Amino acid sequence: MGGRNLIVCIDGTANQFGDKNTNVIEIYNLIRKDTKDNQQTWYNSGIGTYARPQWWSSGYLKQVVVHTIDLAIAWNFDATIQAAYRWLADNYRDGDCIFLFGFSRGAFQVRTLSAMVEKVGLIYKGNEMQIPFAYELYVDSASDSEGVEPATSVGSKQKTSKAERFKRAFSRNVKIHFVGAWDTVSSIGFARGKQVLPGTTEGMTHVCYFRHALALDERRVKFLPEYAWGDSTLPRTDPDPSKESHRVHPHTLEVWFPGTHSDIGGGNEYNEEMDRSAPPLRWMVLEATAAGLRTKPFQRELHPSEQIKVQESLEGFWWNLFEILPFQRLTFVTHKGGQRLTWKPHRGAGRQIQPGQKIHSSFILGEPKTNYIPKAIPPGDNATFWEDLREDIENERGWLEVDIRHYARSLVNRVAAQNVSEVGRLRTIVKSRTGAQTVYDEVIHILEKRGQLASNAKCRLLQDAMMLLSEKSHGLRLAKLIHIRLLLVDLLSHDQKDYRDVAEAFIRQLTDHMGYGGVVGSVGLGSFLRARWC
């Protein structure tokens, strides 16, 4: 990827910059924007937002009314998409990578934008007057129908659609690189019909990478999610995992997180400094940076109490009224012959987890005493699913989505802070060379940053590290012996022989002895280290 990154961010319903900033604003803040970073950005506040003047006027009151209606039926839905499309058209150059991020309806808008670019292409700069027509072509399913023969292929029987002919004449063929969505909601208007906008619920396979964070505890009927395939992550066919058609697209990943709609996308809590950095944001940043996005590092680590935050959203008269009204909605029943739509009242039912989706590791990293049980319904309505998942520390069933660095850092921090062993969970990570290196790096990071770490906790940390990594040390980038010796001076000179032995064993097994081999070999490591402190 030798070009630039063009980044579009569209916020959720009624969300804009302020005191309770969302993940969209937070990721926008993290994106590096200096000239040397070769990235350009575009942000739009959510549907139903408006600037508040210092005075009252008829124009202001009209704006309030219009935007209140817009919250309900999303009149300005397409205007935002066309504005973002124009910005991309004006700025795109060959070789650029396009990243799209959105929350709630903003997530559906960026999915729509990606599908529009796929269908009608990215119009050449200077043709902005054609953008409304391009959007009409995109929305109109009839524009996919084959029409006249191409003028350049006289005598050929091949025919092209109106959208294809427009794309060939006015646009560049551009593939969206990355789409990151927090809890996509598509309810534009008052009911979800059988058909939605083209390309938005057909697997998202037209983009290179699709990442979707979902809310385990959202229950409102007006906030039902739109998965990659609308009501599923896999194609809607007779479920048979052995069939090729049932494999998740390799670049599509949908992951569940503890929380309701605005816990996942942000906006529930005060976040003036844009540093809430909750698990759904951290995961999205990790995925996007792996795909080439350039961001600033997070400024703090999360405490176990911050891994799981749930603020109930199904409260108040209107939201509860909606639950007993007959809105047309998806059933999320995906087996062959199942009814896809229903008018039955929703009654605050939990969301339904589908095959192919994942549960983020923050679910098992939270405070163990919370007894948190998500409201989402597991596959097959398995009553022991959540309990089994907590016990599946080696992820043998494959349901967990693990951010290796975040997961390793959280577990290593727990060992250091609480003096408890996490060998079982860490063993899952060190199975791969990358995971083993990550755990080692995090152990060294803790030793460097925690100068006042209690001796017993430090000893436990070293013991766990040796148990996990000693047999893998030949493939690791090890820290220099001289550096680790300085970090372990308290243990090496401790009154208790057990502590001294653990420190010496760690240095012997998991440090780089380059330059000390002859000395260590001739007098023994313990004698060498003790001699150096006299």
From TrEMBL:
Superkingdom of origin organism: Eukaryota
Protein name according to UniProt: T6SS Phospholipase effector Tle1-like catalytic domain-containing protein
T6SS Phospholipase effector Tle1-like catalytic domain boundaries: 4-286
InterPro entries, per the entry: AB_hydrolase_fold, Tle1-like_cat
Pfam family of the protein (one): T6SS_Tle1-like_cat
Organism phylogeny: Eukaryota, Fungi, Dikarya, Basidiomycota, Agaricomycotina
Protein's organism: Candolleomyces eurysporus
